[in-house]
């Protein structure tokens, strides 16, 4: 099959979070199985050019219709660790992707509407006719809409779309101006409640709703979150749209790339280890402590890695840090916040705790350090408010770092409580789970983990090793995506 991924991220060249990991990891596994995959991305000024090999011009002067006139683009092409990627670079005064950031601009809906339009125009003009166009999150929600309302009539009648939602919270809103700019026009048509009109704001179109309505199939990134999105408030207002489209909505658990995340061969960790050489994990803990100027001691080391965002339960992350210190453990936090209040808050904490030899806050995005933390920590906390899948607990499991998580979304599908899980036997349990969204519940799960660590180290090691034995690679999920591609291409 010939699959084109259209997304706003692809690790490691463009990575703000888990979306980038998924686009890269899934594409690699699909190619390993003999499928042809190409990835279309914006050409951001701030992406990691050092991860692109052989960047060259692929399409000169692509004319993208925009607001009744046009914007000219160059399309560059290069290999990101073996994946063929096309980067769209608009040449216009708006400087859509030359802002020194991936997201967070006031005109984000316009920026990504343009990207979606340009990606479709590129496919059309360069005569690329993939079997399936796989698009991701709100940034590319208008692609199925444009395919079936415009490009289908211009020579793309056989293309099909799969739309994957990694995060329901960010949906992408706009008004008439988006319709006018992209050439969709006809507000009276698109502002119908069964097309793009937002269910809660009659004056807005909703990109994600458009993607759900128009795509041949829609999925989110874990089976449990697919249920939550339809039946609880975790659909962030799209529950009704998901209900009406439930015949084409499902959940597929993400994978992690075993070449990127493998303690036996990870280039970023100084001491490799595996199931049978588990003791060597301790050498990475020592290295991590040295690097972050933490004291060497016999204390357990708890970590958090992730975006510092309301989604990740920042208040519980904060509480976990102080509770770990209170219980005589060490804590390492690696995260970055886009919201100013959260950023200020954690910078304040960082300065306050600066001289404490048992805690380190690294407030930046640092891929290399993330690998060392996964390898060096004993436990990883994931106290999310909601979590469509969650990769950090899966990576933690792979590195023998025991997850302590809140039982939501994909965390339910991947972490099985040592004491209380009734669906998995003791030999399958791999972590600690709490359910209520409060400090008491968090503390009780952390307590249970600390107690096992302190009083029954052999059992703690057993839990860690049971986690390492799980196969959360792309092996199974890639097959599920291939089955879906086959299904939609014959629709
Ligand atoms: N400061 C930092 N420095 C270095 N690395 C950092 C970092 N902060 C985060 N990372 C890395 O980014 C990834 C984050 O994965 P998550 O599953 O938490 O993704 P996120 O919530 O962004 O994405 C959404 O999409 C993914 C993919 O579908 C879903 O798993 C998830 O539930 C959903 O919210 C991990 O690889 C982590 O190591």
Automatic annotation (TrEMBL):
GO molecular function: alpha-1,4-glucan glucosyltransferase (ADP-glucose donor) activity
Residues bound to ADP-alpha-D-glucose: 15
Any single Pfam family the record assigns to this protein: Glyco_transf_5
Function: Synthesizes alpha-1,4-glucan chains using ADP-glucose.
Keywords: Glycogen biosynthesis, Glycosyltransferase, Transferase
InterPro entries registered for this protein in UniProt: Glyco_trans_1, GS/SS, Starch_synth_cat_dom
Biological pathway: Glycan biosynthesis; glycogen biosynthesis
Annotated ranges, domain Starch synthase catalytic: 3-243
Reactions this protein catalyses: [(1->4)-alpha-D-glucosyl](n) + ADP-alpha-D-glucose = [(1->4)-alpha-D-glucosyl](n+1) + ADP + H(+)
Glycosyl transferase family domain residues: 294-453
Family stated for the protein in its record: Belongs to the glycosyltransferase 1 family. Bacterial/plant glycogen synthase subfamily.
Protein name: Glycogen synthase
Top class in the EC scheme: transferase
E.C. number(s) listed in UniProt: 2.4.1.21
């Amino acid at each position: 099959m010939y699959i084109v991924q259209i997304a706003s991220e692809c690790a490691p060249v463009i990575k703000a979070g888990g979306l980038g990991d998924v686009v890269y990891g899934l594409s690699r596994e699909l190619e390993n199985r003999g499928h042809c995959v190409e990835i279309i991305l914006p050409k951001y000024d701030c992406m990691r050019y050092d991860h692109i090999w052989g960047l060259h011009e692929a399409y000169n002067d692509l004319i993208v219709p925009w607001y009744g006139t046009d914007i000219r683009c160059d399309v560059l092409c290069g290999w990101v660790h073996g994946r063929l990627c096309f980067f769209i670079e608009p040449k216009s005064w708006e400087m859509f992707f030359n802002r020194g950031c991936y997201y967070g601009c006031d005109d984000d809906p316009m920026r990504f509407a343009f990207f979606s339009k340009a990606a479709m125009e590129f496919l059309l003009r360069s005569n690329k006719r993939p079997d399936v166009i796989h698009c991701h999150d709100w940034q590319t929600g208008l692609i199925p809409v444009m395919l079936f309302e415009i490009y289908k009539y211009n020579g793309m009648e056989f293309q099909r779309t799969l739309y994957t939602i990694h995060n329901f919270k960010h949906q992408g809103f706009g008004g008439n101006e988006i319709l006018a700019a992209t050439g969709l026009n006809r507000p009276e048509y698109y502002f119908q409640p069964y097309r793009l009109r937002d269910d809660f704001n009659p004056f807005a179109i909703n990109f994600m709703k458009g993607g759900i309505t128009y795509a041949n199939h829609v999925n989110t990134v874990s089976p449990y979150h697919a249920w939550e999105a339809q039946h609880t408030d975790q659909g962030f207002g799209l529950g009704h749209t998901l209900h009406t489209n439930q015949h084409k909505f499902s959940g597929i658990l993400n994978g992690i790339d075993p070449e990127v995340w493998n303690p036996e061969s990870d280039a970023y960790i100084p001491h490799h280890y595996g199931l049978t050489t588990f003791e060597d994990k301790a050498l990475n803990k020592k290295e991590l402590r040295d690097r972050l100027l933490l004291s060497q001691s016999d204390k357990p080391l708890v970590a958090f890695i992730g975006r510092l965002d309301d989604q990740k339960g920042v208040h519980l992350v904060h509480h976990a840090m102080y509770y770990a210190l209170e219980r005589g453990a060490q804590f390492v936090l690696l995260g970055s916040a886009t919201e100013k209040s959260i950023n200020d808050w954690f910078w304040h904490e960082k300065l306050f705790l600066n001289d404490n030899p048992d805690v380190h806050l690294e407030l930046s995005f640092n891929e290399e350090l993330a690998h060392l933390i996964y390898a060096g920590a004993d436990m990883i906390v994931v106290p999310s408010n909601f979590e469509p899948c969650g990769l950090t607990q899966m990576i933690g499991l792979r590195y023998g770092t025991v997850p302590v998580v809140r039982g939501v979304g994909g965390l339910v599908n991947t972490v099985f409580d040592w004491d209380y899980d009734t669906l998995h036997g003791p030999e399958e349990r791999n972590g600690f789970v709490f359910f209520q969204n409060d400090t008491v519940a968090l503390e009780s799960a952390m307590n249970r983990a600390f107690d096992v660590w302190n009083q029954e180290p052999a059992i703690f090691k057993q839990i860690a090793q049971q986690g390492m034995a799980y196969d959360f690679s792309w092996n199974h999920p890639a097959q599920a995506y291939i089955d879906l591609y086959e299904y939609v291409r014959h629709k």
